[in-house]
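Input record (Table S2, row 473):
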Amino acid sequence: MTKLADQMKRGLDAPICLTWELTYACNLDCVHCLSSSGRRDPRELSTDEAIAVIDELRRMQVFYVNIGGGEPMLRRDFFPIIDHATTSGVGVKFSTNGTYIDTDAARRLAAMDYLDVQISIDGADAATNDLVRGQGSWDTARRAMDALAAADFGEFKISVVVTRENVTQLDDLLAIADGYGAQLRITRLRPAGRGADTWHQLHPTDAQQRDLYHWLLERGDRVLTGDSFFHLNALGDPLPGLNLCGAGRVVCLIDPVGDVYACPFVIHDEFKAGNVRDPGGFASVWNSSELFAELREPGSAGACASCGAYDACQGGCMAAKFFTGLPLDGPDPECVSGHGAAALAAATTAPRPDQDHSRARARAAAAAVPVTLGRR
Amino acid sequence: MTVHTATLGALRLHPSVAVRPEPFGALAYHYDTRRLVFLRHPQLVDVVHALHEHADLDTTMDALGVAETLRGPFQRAVANLAEACIVITRDSEEDRS
Ligand code: SF4
Ligand code: SF4
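Output record (iron/sulfur cluster complex):
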């Protein structure tokens, strides 16, 4: 454990990795959606409130914000909001399913500075992708990529959540990114939002996790990972990146209604630190909420204390444990030393995600997944 | 590749870099390359901010009275910052990112 990592655990004056979900509205129904998006929430921040959040982030010297949703481009004030951010020195990295990136939008995006665009796909072909993201979503995403390329956007990002179904397609995904001069970003599937219902069928198997680890050791310099695979470090040489759970320390989420959570993957009352509408705004939530103070205390290793790999893997991801009903101071459900399966077997009930903006249709689709995934 | 600070000459912060104070020193972010870098000593932050007022890194450290034991580490740190284009030589002030 380096001194720097210790310092980071005590928290920073402002987050490094701040996610801001602009809306719960989404035109897709992805079965693993971390925020259970679908319908807009009537309490979502107004344009003025969103602008005020950006001004506060600027004062806190937050260098950039990860904008997501829902589908952020569904907000009518999407462009004014990101314009305001990028021209005030708050860079924007935004994630989209690509539906609303047509020729005009691509040109508009290409003309902006300090803006990164991330198009989500979850497979290297339509069949694999559409299984998770819905019929037609592959073609939509490819059209958006074509539009960005045609508008000379430059190096956009292709963002993939690694699942049991697509983990064998990483080389193909890399080739797709190369074809566009784009950068591949892969992140870990967590049982958050609708993902709580589908994680058990979709998360990579033990053998796949080992393959993924070796793939990352070999090709890791060509992909971005958001440092999300540090639970794999227990397998040997550490992967590059910050090896710690950053929740409430360097990571946090502002949700569409202004609620501040410790991390985008823990939308649950237990991890809600406050709201940007509270007196003192986001800064006071970040600096003085009780929850964040607690998360910045040194954690106990709990059941991981006897494991030689704890220094390397830090017990994994808090969100993954929480939504699978595991103790937060024990092994990750995907513990690569094999302690996850036993822990899962011992877990009786898991907390349900708190916010659900899914459309009814989406809920039914999520419930149907075990059947659909019988494909291989 | 290692950059030797002795050969860098007159230095300054890249105009697209923002530096945010933190308890351990500071975070520096390069808006063009999107690189985030840790400055892991409060006095290193002062050095980086003062580079443009002095002929080179050594004279900057002289002016700020940097202790003998810190000069080596700061030299290595500034060499890394130069590699990341966080600091640049003053005759190349145009964006080199
Ligand atoms: S037992 Fe805990 S520390 Fe050891 S590998 Fe598993 S999750 Fe990591
Ligand atoms: S809870 Fe998991 S996803 Fe969130 S910051 Fe911690 S490790 Fe990352």
